[in-house]
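STRUCTURE:
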């Protein structure tokens, strides 16, 4: 906020008395008090699908202090945090490793979308394949176990 300087002259008449008043102001710059903004992080996978249960860390770039840590919800969103204007590093972590990070000069309310290198759909398909392999192995063991008790007539 700033107040622009200038000069203003006004004549005031009260009854029979007339008085001229001159006001002069100077320019004043007033910095905003507690300038802060909201920040949320939306994490998606390679397919553009929401990535839940990932850890999002917001770190102040000037001194590497972790300001906030949260998990993404089922929609891939971190919690909204209110931060002072400044430079931040955002990191997205899986349970085992850092997936990605970006530097962000926070100068307005922001929702940042970050895309991880891990596909949620790929992980789901891999889980289904492993489950099917386990079922096939169990069926094969059951069949072989039961085959010992079945007598096949000679050909």
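SEQUENCE:
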């Amino acid at each position: 906020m700033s107040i622009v300087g200038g000069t203003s002259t006004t004549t005031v008449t009260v009854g029979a008395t007339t008085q001229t008043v001159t006001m002069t102001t100077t320019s004043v710059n007033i910095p905003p008090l507690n300038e802060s903004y909201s920040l949320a992080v939306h994490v998606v996978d390679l397919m553009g699908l929401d990535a839940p249960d990932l850890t999002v860390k917001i770190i102040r770039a000037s001194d590497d202090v972790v300001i906030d840590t949260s998990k993404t919800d089922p929609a891939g969103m971190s919690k909204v945090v209110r931060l002072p204007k400044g430079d931040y590093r955002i990191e997205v972590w899986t349970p085992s490793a850092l997936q990605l990070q970006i530097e962000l000069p926070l100068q307005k309310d922001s929702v940042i979308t970050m895309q991880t290198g891990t596909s949620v759909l790929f992980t789901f398909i891999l889980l289904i394949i492993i489950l099917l392999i386990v079922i096939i192995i169990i069926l094969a063991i059951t069949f072989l176990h039961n085959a010992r008790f079945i007598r096949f007539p000679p050909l």
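REMARK: The longest helix spans residues 120-147.
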